[in-house]
Amino acid sequence: MRLVTYLFRSARGTFLLALAAGLVSGIAGAAFIAPVNAALGDPDEAASGSIWIWYVALCLIAVVTRAFAQIQLFRLSQQVIYRLRRRMVDAILDAPLRAVETTGTPRLYSALADDVVVVADALPGLPLVCSSAAFLLVVIVYLVIVSPVVALVTLAAAVAGVAAYRAFAAYGMRYLAAARTEQDALFEHFRTVVEGVKELKLNRARRDALAGRALDATAMSYRRHSVVGLSVFEAAAGSGQAIIFALVGVLLFALPAMAAIPAASIAAAVLVILFAVSSLQGVLVWLPTLGRASIALGSIEARLTELETAGREEPATTPTPAFGDWRSIRLHGVRHVYRGPTGEEFTLGPLDLRVRRGEVLFVVGGNGSGKTTLAKLITGLYPPQGGTIRIGGTEVTGIKDTGIKDTGIEDTGVEITDADRDAYRQQFSAVFSDFHLFDNLLGLPPQDLLDKARHYLARLRLDHKVSIVDDRFSATALSQGQRKRLALLLAFLEDRPAYVFDEWAADQDPEFKRFFYRELLAELKARDKAVVVISHDDRYFDAADRLVRLDYGQISDAPAWLTSPPPGPGDPEEVRS
Protein backbone atom coordinates (compact mmCIF):
# COMPACT_ATOMS: atom_id res chain seq x y z
CA MET A 1 0.00 0.00 0.00
CA ARG A 2 1.27 3.47 -0.95
CA LEU A 3 0.50 4.87 2.51
CA VAL A 4 2.59 2.25 4.31
CA THR A 5 5.50 2.79 1.91
CA TYR A 6 5.39 6.55 2.48
CA LEU A 7 5.32 6.21 6.27
CA PHE A 8 8.14 3.69 6.27
CA ARG A 9 10.21 6.06 4.13
CA SER A 10 9.47 9.32 5.93
CA ALA A 11 9.06 8.35 9.62
CA ARG A 12 10.44 4.87 9.93
CA GLY A 13 11.19 4.87 13.67
CA THR A 14 7.84 6.12 14.93
CA PHE A 15 5.91 4.07 12.39
CA LEU A 16 7.69 0.79 13.23
CA LEU A 17 7.32 1.46 16.96
CA ALA A 18 3.57 1.97 16.53
CA LEU A 19 3.24 -1.15 14.40
CA ALA A 20 5.23 -3.19 16.91
CA ALA A 21 2.97 -2.01 19.71
CA GLY A 22 -0.06 -2.91 17.58
CA LEU A 23 1.33 -6.39 16.97
CA VAL A 24 1.97 -6.93 20.70
CA SER A 25 -1.56 -5.75 21.44
CA GLY A 26 -3.00 -8.21 18.93
CA ILE A 27 -0.92 -11.11 20.23
CA ALA A 28 -1.87 -10.32 23.84
CA GLY A 29 -5.52 -9.95 22.91
CA ALA A 30 -5.54 -13.32 21.20
CA ALA A 31 -3.43 -15.02 23.87
CA PHE A 32 -5.86 -14.33 26.66
CA ILE A 33 -8.29 -16.70 24.93
CA ALA A 34 -6.22 -19.51 26.49
CA PRO A 35 -6.92 -18.55 30.13
CA VAL A 36 -10.57 -17.96 29.20
CA ASN A 37 -10.88 -21.50 27.82
CA ALA A 38 -8.96 -22.89 30.77
CA ALA A 39 -11.25 -21.14 33.22
CA LEU A 40 -14.34 -22.39 31.39
CA GLY A 41 -12.95 -25.94 31.39
CA ASP A 42 -12.02 -25.97 35.10
CA PRO A 43 -13.85 -23.31 37.16
CA ASP A 44 -12.32 -24.54 40.43
CA GLU A 45 -8.78 -24.11 39.11
CA ALA A 46 -9.68 -20.66 37.79
CA ALA A 47 -10.90 -19.57 41.22
CA SER A 48 -7.93 -20.87 43.19
CA GLY A 49 -5.04 -20.96 40.72
CA SER A 50 -2.99 -18.41 38.80
CA ILE A 51 -5.11 -18.34 35.64
CA TRP A 52 -6.72 -15.07 36.61
CA ILE A 53 -3.30 -13.47 37.02
CA TRP A 54 -2.39 -14.36 33.46
CA TYR A 55 -5.78 -13.11 32.31
CA VAL A 56 -5.29 -9.73 34.00
CA ALA A 57 -1.71 -9.42 32.76
CA LEU A 58 -2.64 -10.16 29.15
CA CYS A 59 -5.56 -7.75 29.28
CA LEU A 60 -3.31 -4.98 30.61
CA ILE A 61 -0.69 -5.66 27.95
CA ALA A 62 -3.31 -5.56 25.21
CA VAL A 63 -4.85 -2.30 26.45
CA VAL A 64 -1.59 -0.47 27.19
CA THR A 65 0.16 -1.42 23.96
CA ARG A 66 -2.89 -0.52 21.89
CA ALA A 67 -3.09 2.90 23.61
CA PHE A 68 0.65 3.39 23.08
CA ALA A 69 0.32 2.53 19.39
CA GLN A 70 -2.57 4.99 18.97
CA ILE A 71 -0.68 7.79 20.72
CA GLN A 72 2.34 7.23 18.48
CA LEU A 73 0.12 7.31 15.41
CA PHE A 74 -1.61 10.50 16.60
CA ARG A 75 1.80 12.12 16.90
CA LEU A 76 2.80 10.74 13.53
CA SER A 77 -0.41 12.01 11.90
CA GLN A 78 0.34 15.58 12.96
CA GLN A 79 3.92 15.16 11.80
CA VAL A 80 2.68 13.91 8.43
CA ILE A 81 0.31 16.88 8.08
CA TYR A 82 3.18 19.29 8.74
CA ARG A 83 5.67 17.53 6.48
CA LEU A 84 3.31 17.10 3.54
CA ARG A 85 2.02 20.66 3.72
CA ARG A 86 5.53 22.06 4.14
CA ARG A 87 6.75 20.01 1.21
CA MET A 88 3.82 21.25 -0.89
CA VAL A 89 4.48 24.87 0.12
CA ASP A 90 8.19 24.55 -0.66
CA ALA A 91 7.41 22.90 -4.00
CA ILE A 92 5.04 25.75 -4.91
CA LEU A 93 7.57 28.42 -3.95
CA ASP A 94 10.53 26.65 -5.56
CA ALA A 95 8.81 25.70 -8.82
CA PRO A 96 8.77 28.05 -11.82
CA LEU A 97 5.74 30.34 -11.75
CA ARG A 98 4.44 28.93 -15.03
CA ALA A 99 4.39 25.41 -13.53
CA VAL A 100 2.37 26.66 -10.56
CA GLU A 101 -0.07 28.44 -12.86
CA THR A 102 -0.41 25.32 -15.04
CA THR A 103 -1.13 23.06 -12.05
CA GLY A 104 -3.89 25.44 -11.02
CA THR A 105 -5.08 26.94 -7.75
CA PRO A 106 -8.02 24.54 -7.14
CA ARG A 107 -5.86 21.42 -7.41
CA LEU A 108 -3.20 22.88 -5.11
CA TYR A 109 -5.79 23.98 -2.54
CA SER A 110 -7.44 20.56 -2.71
CA ALA A 111 -4.14 18.83 -1.99
CA LEU A 112 -3.17 21.21 0.83
CA ALA A 113 -6.55 21.50 2.53
CA ASP A 114 -8.21 18.11 2.02
CA ASP A 115 -5.84 15.39 0.84
CA VAL A 116 -3.32 15.95 3.63
CA VAL A 117 -6.06 15.69 6.27
CA VAL A 118 -7.47 12.51 4.69
CA VAL A 119 -4.03 10.91 4.90
CA ALA A 120 -3.51 11.95 8.53
CA ASP A 121 -7.00 10.83 9.62
CA ALA A 122 -6.33 7.33 8.32
CA LEU A 123 -3.14 6.72 10.29
CA PRO A 124 -4.76 5.66 13.61
CA GLY A 125 -6.29 2.71 11.77
CA LEU A 126 -2.93 1.16 10.93
CA PRO A 127 -2.18 -0.24 14.42
CA LEU A 128 -5.63 -1.80 14.48
CA VAL A 129 -4.92 -3.55 11.18
CA CYS A 130 -1.60 -4.84 12.54
CA SER A 131 -3.23 -5.85 15.81
CA SER A 132 -5.91 -7.79 13.98
CA ALA A 133 -3.36 -9.46 11.70
CA ALA A 134 -1.39 -10.59 14.77
CA PHE A 135 -4.63 -11.66 16.42
CA LEU A 136 -5.53 -13.80 13.40
CA LEU A 137 -2.04 -15.36 13.32
CA VAL A 138 -2.26 -16.32 17.00
CA VAL A 139 -5.75 -17.71 16.44
CA ILE A 140 -4.45 -19.95 13.65
CA VAL A 141 -1.60 -21.15 15.89
CA TYR A 142 -4.04 -21.83 18.72
CA LEU A 143 -6.33 -23.75 16.39
CA VAL A 144 -3.38 -25.86 15.22
CA ILE A 145 -2.90 -26.84 18.85
CA VAL A 146 -6.60 -27.56 19.32
CA SER A 147 -7.11 -29.38 16.00
CA PRO A 148 -4.94 -29.23 12.85
CA VAL A 149 -7.99 -30.04 10.73
CA VAL A 150 -9.95 -27.12 12.18
CA ALA A 151 -6.92 -24.87 11.70
CA LEU A 152 -6.63 -25.92 8.05
CA VAL A 153 -10.31 -25.21 7.39
CA THR A 154 -10.02 -21.84 9.13
CA LEU A 155 -6.89 -20.92 7.15
CA ALA A 156 -8.64 -21.82 3.90
CA ALA A 157 -11.59 -19.63 4.88
CA ALA A 158 -9.23 -16.76 5.75
CA VAL A 159 -7.48 -17.03 2.37
CA ALA A 160 -10.83 -17.05 0.59
CA GLY A 161 -11.97 -14.03 2.61
CA VAL A 162 -8.81 -12.04 1.80
CA ALA A 163 -9.10 -12.87 -1.90
CA ALA A 164 -12.76 -11.84 -1.99
CA TYR A 165 -12.02 -8.61 -0.15
CA ARG A 166 -9.16 -7.67 -2.47
CA ALA A 167 -11.38 -8.23 -5.50
CA PHE A 168 -14.08 -5.98 -4.05
CA ALA A 169 -11.57 -3.40 -2.83
CA ALA A 170 -9.89 -3.04 -6.24
CA TYR A 171 -13.27 -2.29 -7.77
CA GLY A 172 -14.18 0.15 -5.02
CA MET A 173 -10.86 1.96 -5.24
CA ARG A 174 -11.54 2.82 -8.88
CA TYR A 175 -14.71 4.65 -7.86
CA LEU A 176 -13.03 6.40 -4.95
CA ALA A 177 -10.26 7.53 -7.33
CA ALA A 178 -12.90 8.91 -9.70
CA ALA A 179 -14.50 10.74 -6.79
CA ARG A 180 -11.13 12.27 -5.93
CA THR A 181 -10.80 13.53 -9.51
CA GLU A 182 -14.24 15.16 -9.25
CA GLN A 183 -13.10 16.86 -6.04
CA ASP A 184 -10.71 19.10 -7.99
CA ALA A 185 -13.60 20.24 -10.16
CA LEU A 186 -15.66 20.88 -7.03
CA PHE A 187 -12.91 23.10 -5.60
CA GLU A 188 -12.94 25.09 -8.85
CA HIS A 189 -16.70 25.59 -8.47
CA PHE A 190 -16.25 26.63 -4.84
CA ARG A 191 -13.63 29.18 -5.88
CA THR A 192 -16.01 30.54 -8.48
CA VAL A 193 -18.76 30.93 -5.89
CA VAL A 194 -16.54 32.67 -3.34
CA GLU A 195 -14.73 34.99 -5.75
CA GLY A 196 -17.74 35.68 -7.96
CA VAL A 197 -20.37 36.07 -5.27
CA LYS A 198 -21.21 39.67 -6.24
CA GLU A 199 -21.66 38.89 -9.91
CA LEU A 200 -23.67 35.75 -9.18
CA LYS A 201 -26.01 37.72 -6.94
CA LEU A 202 -26.56 40.22 -9.74
CA ASN A 203 -27.18 37.60 -12.44
CA ARG A 204 -29.69 34.93 -11.45
CA ALA A 205 -29.35 33.07 -14.76
CA ARG A 206 -25.57 32.80 -14.38
CA ARG A 207 -25.98 31.79 -10.75
CA ASP A 208 -28.40 29.01 -11.71
CA ALA A 209 -26.12 27.85 -14.55
CA LEU A 210 -22.75 27.97 -12.78
CA ALA A 211 -23.47 27.70 -9.06
CA GLY A 212 -26.54 25.59 -9.69
CA ARG A 213 -26.51 23.16 -12.59
CA ALA A 214 -22.74 22.95 -13.15
CA LEU A 215 -21.89 22.65 -9.47
CA ASP A 216 -24.76 20.23 -8.87
CA ALA A 217 -23.67 18.01 -11.75
CA THR A 218 -20.13 17.80 -10.38
CA ALA A 219 -21.32 17.30 -6.81
CA MET A 220 -23.73 14.56 -7.90
CA SER A 221 -20.95 12.82 -9.82
CA TYR A 222 -18.68 13.08 -6.78
CA ARG A 223 -21.42 11.71 -4.54
CA ARG A 224 -22.25 8.89 -6.93
CA HIS A 225 -18.66 7.72 -7.21
CA SER A 226 -18.15 8.03 -3.45
CA VAL A 227 -21.33 6.11 -2.64
CA VAL A 228 -20.52 3.32 -5.09
CA GLY A 229 -16.92 3.06 -3.86
CA LEU A 230 -17.84 2.99 -0.18
CA SER A 231 -20.74 0.61 -0.87
CA VAL A 232 -18.36 -1.79 -2.59
CA PHE A 233 -16.13 -1.71 0.48
CA GLU A 234 -19.18 -2.42 2.63
CA ALA A 235 -20.06 -5.31 0.35
CA ALA A 236 -16.51 -6.56 0.81
CA ALA A 237 -16.96 -6.40 4.58
CA GLY A 238 -20.23 -8.28 4.21
CA SER A 239 -18.55 -10.98 2.17
CA GLY A 240 -15.94 -11.42 4.89
CA GLN A 241 -18.65 -11.69 7.51
CA ALA A 242 -20.51 -14.24 5.37
CA ILE A 243 -17.37 -16.35 5.04
CA ILE A 244 -16.92 -16.30 8.83
CA PHE A 245 -20.52 -17.40 9.37
CA ALA A 246 -20.05 -20.11 6.76
CA LEU A 247 -16.91 -21.25 8.55
CA VAL A 248 -18.76 -21.49 11.86
CA GLY A 249 -21.52 -23.45 10.14
CA VAL A 250 -19.02 -25.87 8.63
CA LEU A 251 -17.34 -26.39 12.02
CA LEU A 252 -20.64 -26.97 13.80
CA PHE A 253 -22.56 -29.06 11.27
CA ALA A 254 -20.33 -30.41 8.49
CA LEU A 255 -16.91 -31.08 9.95
CA PRO A 256 -18.02 -33.43 12.79
CA ALA A 257 -19.65 -35.67 10.19
CA MET A 258 -16.48 -35.81 8.08
CA ALA A 259 -13.78 -36.14 10.74
CA ALA A 260 -13.55 -37.52 14.23
CA ILE A 261 -13.02 -34.27 16.12
CA PRO A 262 -13.93 -34.00 19.83
CA ALA A 263 -16.86 -31.76 20.61
CA ALA A 264 -14.69 -29.81 23.07
CA SER A 265 -12.25 -28.94 20.29
CA ILE A 266 -15.10 -27.78 18.04
CA ALA A 267 -16.53 -25.66 20.84
CA ALA A 268 -13.14 -24.09 21.58
CA ALA A 269 -12.56 -23.34 17.91
CA VAL A 270 -15.99 -21.74 17.45
CA LEU A 271 -15.49 -19.63 20.59
CA VAL A 272 -12.14 -18.36 19.31
CA ILE A 273 -13.50 -17.57 15.84
CA LEU A 274 -16.53 -15.71 17.19
CA PHE A 275 -14.22 -13.79 19.49
CA ALA A 276 -12.12 -12.81 16.49
CA VAL A 277 -15.13 -11.49 14.57
CA SER A 278 -15.35 -8.24 16.57
CA SER A 279 -11.66 -7.53 15.96
CA LEU A 280 -12.00 -8.15 12.24
CA GLN A 281 -15.09 -5.93 12.03
CA GLY A 282 -13.05 -3.05 13.45
CA VAL A 283 -10.45 -3.55 10.73
CA LEU A 284 -13.06 -3.62 7.98
CA VAL A 285 -14.39 -0.26 9.17
CA TRP A 286 -10.95 1.30 8.71
CA LEU A 287 -10.06 -0.21 5.35
CA PRO A 288 -12.17 2.24 3.22
CA THR A 289 -10.54 5.12 5.10
CA LEU A 290 -7.11 3.68 4.41
CA GLY A 291 -8.06 3.25 0.75
CA ARG A 292 -9.11 6.89 0.46
CA ALA A 293 -5.89 7.90 2.20
CA SER A 294 -3.87 5.96 -0.36
CA ILE A 295 -5.70 7.77 -3.17
CA ALA A 296 -5.23 11.15 -1.48
CA LEU A 297 -1.53 10.48 -1.01
CA GLY A 298 -1.30 9.56 -4.68
CA SER A 299 -2.92 12.88 -5.58
CA ILE A 300 -0.48 14.80 -3.37
CA GLU A 301 2.47 12.99 -4.93
CA ALA A 302 1.10 13.74 -8.40
CA ARG A 303 0.93 17.47 -7.60
CA LEU A 304 4.45 17.34 -6.14
CA THR A 305 5.73 15.52 -9.21
CA GLU A 306 4.20 18.16 -11.51
CA LEU A 307 5.91 20.94 -9.58
CA GLU A 308 9.23 19.26 -8.86
CA THR A 309 9.77 17.89 -12.37
CA ALA A 310 9.25 21.39 -13.76
CA GLY A 311 12.57 22.33 -12.17
CA ARG A 312 13.66 23.94 -8.96
CA GLU A 313 14.62 27.58 -8.79
CA GLU A 314 17.67 28.00 -6.62
CA PRO A 315 17.30 30.58 -3.83
CA ALA A 316 19.67 33.52 -3.65
CA THR A 317 22.80 32.67 -1.66
CA THR A 318 23.16 36.17 -0.23
CA PRO A 319 20.53 38.62 1.07
CA THR A 320 22.01 41.38 -1.12
CA PRO A 321 22.74 40.10 -4.63
CA ALA A 322 26.15 41.04 -5.99
CA PHE A 323 25.05 42.86 -9.13
CA GLY A 324 26.73 46.06 -8.03
CA ASP A 325 25.36 49.49 -8.77
CA TRP A 326 23.69 48.37 -11.97
CA ARG A 327 22.39 50.97 -14.38
CA SER A 328 20.22 48.99 -16.78
CA ILE A 329 18.47 45.73 -17.57
CA ARG A 330 18.68 44.68 -21.20
CA LEU A 331 16.36 42.22 -22.91
CA HIS A 332 17.88 40.94 -26.13
CA GLY A 333 15.86 38.68 -28.41
CA VAL A 334 13.71 37.63 -25.47
CA ARG A 335 10.89 35.29 -26.38
CA HIS A 336 8.15 33.53 -24.42
CA VAL A 337 5.42 31.20 -25.67
CA TYR A 338 2.23 30.76 -23.70
CA ARG A 339 0.32 27.56 -24.38
CA GLY A 340 -3.31 27.45 -23.29
CA PRO A 341 -5.13 24.43 -21.87
CA THR A 342 -6.66 23.54 -25.25
CA GLY A 343 -3.48 23.92 -27.29
CA GLU A 344 -3.73 27.57 -28.32
CA GLU A 345 -0.47 29.53 -28.38
CA PHE A 346 0.54 33.15 -27.86
CA THR A 347 4.11 34.20 -28.62
CA LEU A 348 5.69 37.26 -27.05
CA GLY A 349 8.78 38.45 -28.87
CA PRO A 350 11.49 38.25 -29.83
CA LEU A 351 11.92 41.58 -28.02
CA ASP A 352 14.81 44.01 -27.60
CA LEU A 353 14.24 46.37 -24.70
CA ARG A 354 16.15 48.22 -22.01
CA VAL A 355 15.01 49.25 -18.53
CA ARG A 356 17.20 51.95 -16.95
CA ARG A 357 17.74 53.35 -13.47
CA GLY A 358 16.39 56.85 -12.92
CA GLU A 359 13.87 56.41 -15.74
CA VAL A 360 10.11 55.85 -15.97
CA LEU A 361 9.19 53.44 -18.77
CA PHE A 362 5.55 53.03 -19.81
CA VAL A 363 4.40 49.83 -21.50
CA VAL A 364 1.11 50.27 -23.34
CA GLY A 365 -1.00 48.22 -25.69
CA GLY A 366 -4.32 46.50 -26.07
CA ASN A 367 -5.68 43.75 -23.87
CA GLY A 368 -3.92 40.47 -24.54
CA SER A 369 -0.95 42.12 -26.21
CA GLY A 370 1.48 40.57 -23.69
CA LYS A 371 2.10 43.45 -21.28
CA THR A 372 1.76 41.41 -18.07
CA THR A 373 3.81 38.57 -19.55
CA LEU A 374 6.51 41.11 -20.40
CA ALA A 375 6.41 42.38 -16.80
CA LYS A 376 6.90 38.82 -15.53
CA LEU A 377 9.86 38.41 -17.87
CA ILE A 378 11.44 41.69 -16.78
CA THR A 379 11.07 40.78 -13.10
CA GLY A 380 12.42 37.25 -13.63
CA LEU A 381 9.17 35.48 -12.72
CA TYR A 382 9.22 33.87 -16.16
CA PRO A 383 12.56 32.72 -17.56
CA PRO A 384 12.89 33.65 -21.24
CA GLN A 385 12.42 30.72 -23.62
CA GLY A 386 14.75 32.45 -26.03
CA GLY A 387 17.17 35.35 -25.89
CA THR A 388 18.99 36.79 -22.89
CA ILE A 389 18.49 39.23 -20.03
CA ARG A 390 21.52 41.13 -18.75
CA ILE A 391 21.80 43.38 -15.71
CA GLY A 392 24.56 45.93 -15.28
CA GLY A 393 25.66 48.39 -17.90
CA THR A 394 27.83 51.45 -17.91
CA GLU A 395 26.63 54.96 -18.73
CA VAL A 396 28.03 56.37 -21.96
CA THR A 397 27.70 60.11 -22.44
CA GLY A 398 27.22 61.80 -25.74
CA ILE A 399 25.24 58.98 -27.33
CA LYS A 400 21.70 59.84 -28.32
CA ASP A 401 18.81 57.88 -26.84
CA THR A 402 16.83 56.51 -29.79
CA GLY A 403 13.77 55.45 -27.83
CA ILE A 404 13.11 51.74 -27.87
CA LYS A 405 16.58 50.67 -29.02
CA ASP A 406 18.49 53.25 -27.00
CA THR A 407 22.27 53.17 -27.12
CA GLY A 408 23.01 55.39 -24.13
CA ILE A 409 24.33 52.45 -22.12
CA GLU A 410 26.93 49.91 -23.13
CA ASP A 411 25.96 46.24 -23.23
CA THR A 412 28.00 45.17 -20.25
CA GLY A 413 26.85 43.39 -17.13
CA VAL A 414 25.80 39.94 -16.00
CA GLU A 415 23.67 37.58 -18.05
CA ILE A 416 20.87 36.17 -15.88
CA THR A 417 20.90 32.39 -15.65
CA ASP A 418 18.92 29.89 -13.59
CA ALA A 419 21.61 30.00 -10.91
CA ASP A 420 21.14 33.69 -10.15
CA ARG A 421 17.53 34.27 -11.24
CA ASP A 422 16.29 34.41 -7.65
CA ALA A 423 18.98 36.95 -6.78
CA TYR A 424 17.93 38.95 -9.84
CA ARG A 425 14.30 38.94 -8.71
CA GLN A 426 15.32 40.52 -5.40
CA GLN A 427 15.99 43.74 -7.33
CA PHE A 428 12.25 44.29 -7.90
CA SER A 429 9.15 45.35 -6.07
CA ALA A 430 5.92 44.94 -7.98
CA VAL A 431 2.19 45.44 -7.68
CA PHE A 432 0.50 43.26 -10.29
CA SER A 433 -3.10 43.58 -11.37
CA ASP A 434 -3.88 40.29 -9.56
CA PHE A 435 -1.81 41.28 -6.53
CA HIS A 436 -2.00 39.62 -3.12
CA LEU A 437 -2.21 41.99 -0.16
CA PHE A 438 -0.15 40.84 2.82
CA ASP A 439 -1.56 41.90 6.16
CA ASN A 440 1.77 42.33 7.95
CA LEU A 441 5.19 43.95 7.68
CA LEU A 442 7.20 40.74 8.01
CA GLY A 443 10.34 40.45 5.88
CA LEU A 444 10.68 44.20 5.27
CA PRO A 445 13.84 46.22 6.03
CA PRO A 446 13.67 46.93 9.79
CA GLN A 447 15.31 50.35 9.71
CA ASP A 448 12.65 52.89 10.86
CA LEU A 449 10.03 50.49 9.51
CA LEU A 450 7.08 51.57 11.65
CA ASP A 451 7.78 55.28 11.17
CA LYS A 452 8.00 54.86 7.40
CA ALA A 453 4.85 52.75 7.33
CA ARG A 454 2.86 55.32 9.28
CA HIS A 455 4.24 58.07 7.04
CA TYR A 456 2.99 56.34 3.90
CA LEU A 457 -0.34 55.48 5.52
CA ALA A 458 -0.89 59.18 6.05
CA ARG A 459 0.40 60.13 2.62
CA LEU A 460 -1.89 57.58 0.93
CA ARG A 461 -4.78 58.78 3.12
CA LEU A 462 -5.30 55.42 4.76
CA ASP A 463 -4.41 56.39 8.32
CA HIS A 464 -8.06 57.02 9.18
CA LYS A 465 -8.93 53.41 8.28
CA VAL A 466 -5.78 51.40 8.92
CA SER A 467 -3.34 51.39 11.81
CA ILE A 468 -0.37 49.17 12.58
CA VAL A 469 -0.63 46.85 15.58
CA ASP A 470 2.20 44.42 16.33
CA ASP A 471 3.59 44.75 12.79
CA ARG A 472 0.19 43.99 11.27
CA PHE A 473 -2.41 46.11 9.53
CA SER A 474 -5.50 46.52 11.66
CA ALA A 475 -7.72 46.05 8.59
CA THR A 476 -7.45 44.85 4.99
CA ALA A 477 -11.19 44.57 4.22
CA LEU A 478 -11.09 47.75 2.14
CA SER A 479 -12.10 48.88 -1.29
CA GLN A 480 -9.99 47.62 -4.18
CA GLY A 481 -8.42 51.03 -4.65
CA GLN A 482 -7.51 51.23 -0.96
CA ARG A 483 -6.11 47.69 -1.00
CA LYS A 484 -3.92 48.68 -3.94
CA ARG A 485 -2.68 51.66 -1.95
CA LEU A 486 -1.71 49.33 0.90
CA ALA A 487 0.09 47.10 -1.60
CA LEU A 488 1.89 50.20 -2.92
CA LEU A 489 2.88 51.07 0.64
CA LEU A 490 4.46 47.64 1.10
CA ALA A 491 6.31 48.00 -2.20
CA PHE A 492 7.69 51.39 -1.10
CA LEU A 493 8.85 49.91 2.20
CA GLU A 494 10.78 47.19 0.34
CA ASP A 495 12.90 49.97 -1.20
CA ARG A 496 14.17 47.93 -4.15
CA PRO A 497 16.16 49.34 -7.10
CA ALA A 498 13.36 48.61 -9.60
CA TYR A 499 9.57 48.87 -9.50
CA VAL A 500 6.87 47.40 -11.73
CA PHE A 501 3.26 48.59 -11.57
CA ASP A 502 0.69 46.65 -13.58
CA GLU A 503 -2.38 48.86 -14.04
CA TRP A 504 -2.01 50.18 -10.50
CA ALA A 505 -4.11 53.27 -11.15
CA ALA A 506 -6.99 51.38 -12.78
CA ASP A 507 -9.02 51.29 -9.53
CA GLN A 508 -8.10 54.74 -8.25
CA ASP A 509 -10.15 57.90 -8.27
CA PRO A 510 -8.86 60.94 -10.23
CA GLU A 511 -7.09 62.35 -7.18
CA PHE A 512 -4.96 59.29 -6.62
CA LYS A 513 -4.39 58.73 -10.32
CA ARG A 514 -2.82 62.15 -10.50
CA PHE A 515 -0.96 61.55 -7.23
CA PHE A 516 0.49 58.32 -8.62
CA TYR A 517 1.50 59.59 -12.05
CA ARG A 518 2.64 63.11 -11.11
CA GLU A 519 4.14 62.67 -7.66
CA LEU A 520 4.99 59.06 -6.79
CA LEU A 521 6.56 58.21 -10.14
CA ALA A 522 8.57 61.43 -10.07
CA GLU A 523 9.71 60.62 -6.53
CA LEU A 524 10.88 57.13 -7.54
CA LYS A 525 12.71 58.58 -10.52
CA ALA A 526 14.42 61.12 -8.27
CA ARG A 527 15.52 58.25 -6.00
CA ASP A 528 17.24 56.66 -9.02
CA LYS A 529 14.77 53.77 -9.29
CA ALA A 530 14.00 51.94 -12.50
CA VAL A 531 10.23 52.15 -12.97
CA VAL A 532 8.09 50.15 -15.39
CA VAL A 533 4.42 51.13 -15.59
CA ILE A 534 1.78 49.19 -17.50
CA SER A 535 -1.00 51.64 -18.16
CA HIS A 536 -4.02 52.52 -20.28
CA ASP A 537 -4.20 56.07 -18.87
CA ASP A 538 -3.26 57.94 -22.05
CA ARG A 539 -3.81 61.31 -20.33
CA TYR A 540 -0.70 60.61 -18.27
CA PHE A 541 1.56 59.12 -20.92
CA ASP A 542 3.58 62.32 -20.80
CA ALA A 543 4.76 61.23 -17.31
CA ALA A 544 6.95 58.61 -19.00
CA ASP A 545 10.52 59.20 -20.04
CA ARG A 546 10.06 56.46 -22.63
CA LEU A 547 7.03 54.66 -23.93
CA VAL A 548 6.84 51.34 -25.75
CA ARG A 549 3.77 49.82 -27.30
CA LEU A 550 3.01 46.12 -27.59
CA ASP A 551 0.88 44.77 -30.43
CA TYR A 552 0.21 41.01 -30.46
CA GLY A 553 3.44 40.25 -28.64
CA GLN A 554 5.67 42.62 -30.66
CA ILE A 555 7.01 46.08 -29.92
CA SER A 556 5.68 48.57 -32.44
CA ASP A 557 6.29 52.24 -33.06
CA ALA A 558 4.08 54.47 -30.97
CA PRO A 559 1.46 56.36 -33.01
CA ALA A 560 1.44 60.13 -32.94
CA TRP A 561 -1.45 60.44 -30.47
CA LEU A 562 0.64 58.65 -27.82
CA THR A 563 3.35 61.29 -27.98
CA SER A 564 1.09 64.34 -28.34
CA PRO A 565 1.39 67.19 -25.81
CA PRO A 566 -0.22 66.54 -22.43
CA PRO A 567 -3.68 67.94 -21.69
CA GLY A 568 -3.98 71.42 -20.34
CA PRO A 569 -4.43 72.35 -16.68
CA GLY A 570 -8.20 72.65 -17.12
CA ASP A 571 -8.63 69.01 -18.06
CA PRO A 572 -10.78 67.23 -15.44
CA GLU A 573 -8.24 64.40 -15.21
CA GLU A 574 -5.58 66.90 -14.16
CA VAL A 575 -7.61 68.48 -11.36
CA ARG A 576 -7.73 67.00 -7.88
CA SER A 577 -11.23 66.35 -6.60
Describe this structure in words.
- β1 (328-339) and β2 (345-356) form a beta hairpin.
- The chain is built from 17 helices and 14 strands.
- It is α/β, with parallel strands linked by helices.
Brief write-up:
With 577 residues, this protein is of the alpha/beta class. It is 60% helix and 12% strand.
Provide the fold topology.
Layout: H1 2-10, H2 12-31, H3 33-41, H4 43-48, H5 51-94, H6 97-103, H7 105-122, H8 125-146, H9 148-195, H10 197-202, H11 204-258, H12 263-308, E1 328-339, E2 345-356, E3 359-365, H13 371-378, E4 386-392, E5 394-395, E6 409-410, E7 414-415, H14 421-425, E8 428-431, H15 449-459, E9 468-469, E10 472-473, H16 480-494, E11 498-502, H17 510-526, E12 530-534, E13 546-551, E14 554-556
Parallel strand pairs: 3-12, 3-13, 8-11, 11-12
Antiparallel strand pairs: 1-2, 1-4, 4-7, 5-6, 9-10, 13-14
Helix pairs in contact: 1-2, 2-5, 2-8, 3-5, 5-7, 5-8, 5-12, 7-9, 7-12, 8-9, 8-12, 9-11, 9-12, 11-12, 15-16
Class from helix and strand fractions: alpha/beta
Strand arrangement in the largest pleated sheet: 8-11-12-3-13-14
Name the CATH homologous superfamily of the largest domain: ABC transporter type 1, transmembrane domain
Fold-level CATH name of the largest domain: ABC transporter transmembrane region fold
SS summary, helix count: 17
